[in-house]
């Protein structure tokens, strides 16, 4: 199963990680919009529809839980929020309370993220 047509907003401030995730997601067939800014991500999510937001929590301009709340509040439909972070508690709990569907802590194997994204119910909306 692939991610064909899944619209993903990738939010990661580390350029190397952002680039690797973008390539890996595109290889799987996803349409990826990537940014290193929480504010830009919130703006993008308010103007475009995404199926999934894949975000780091440690952003330089906006706390991750604040970003999650903003995206969920402004989205016209239910967007899935997947968090990949190097932070532990209490940040993981805050992300879940803000509305994250799942939180992966670094280091995480790419296959775990991919397996989650390929679950039924996460397929791109037609």
Characterization of this structure:
With 126 residues, the protein is of the alpha/beta class. It has one domain (7-117): Response regulator (Rossmann fold). It contains five helices and five strands, in the order βαβαβαβαβα. A five-stranded parallel beta sheet has the order 2-1-3-4-5, sandwiched between helices. It starts with 6 loop residues before the first strand and ends in a 9-residue tail after the last helix. The mean pLDDT is 92.
How would you summarize what this structure contains?
The chain has helices spanning 15-27, 38-47, 64-74, 91-98, 110-117, and strands at 7-11, 31-35, 52-55, 80-85, 102-105. With 126 residues, the protein is of the alpha/beta class. It has one domain: Response regulator (Rossmann fold), CATH 3.40.50.2300.
